[in-house]
Amino acid sequence: MKGVVLILCLLALPASAEVFTYIDAHGNRVYTDQPRGNAKRVPIATSNRMPATPTGSAPSRQTRNATPQPPFHYDMLRVLVPEPDATIRSSAGELIVSITSEPALQEGHRYRLLLDGQPTGEPGLSPVFPLSNIDRGSHHLSAEILDADGRTVERTANQPFHMLRISLAQKRQVKPCTKDDYGVRPECPLKDKPEEPKNPFLRFF
Fold this sequence. Notes:
Number of strands: 12
Strand content: 25-35%
Order of helices and strands: HEEEEEEEEEEEEH
Shape: rod-shaped
Number of helices: 2
Helix content: under 10%
Largest sheet: 6 strands, mixed
CATH class of the domain at 76-164: Mainly Beta
CATH topology of the domain at 76-164: Immunoglobulin-like
């Protein structure tokens, strides 16, 4: 009986331990983990114990994608100046365009003005756009709001206007040059100023 108990105890040793057996002086079989001169190694079966299953559920590693925020929407965006279908008279083809939005421009957003579908310059924070050298005839203006990635957030419909570039000769016809206008008004250069009649009495002095 003692031998059976000893065997069970030895089987409980770690798998890496070795078990030896021999017959002592009294004729009893002895099992030990210490090798002796006449001891024989006893093969031990590999343990079939399963590792303990964790009781707590492992936290999920899947991260939910953040719900994308809807793009910001402006209640109103329009061209204030010039008014729709306005007629602009400028010999140099100059025009100052003003736009407005409601609410005000948001952080990271920029205004951009388009003339006949083409940008007039880089997007910026200012709602005022000075233009020059616009060709004579009818044109279209539209305004855009771009986000930080350059995507269009809002855009107005095309708004027509008409540019009349009056020549200097036409200006002189509308308002003739007076003596004091020469050298002051662009259409009245000094070279065109007529000579003043000489006083005949000055020749005697």
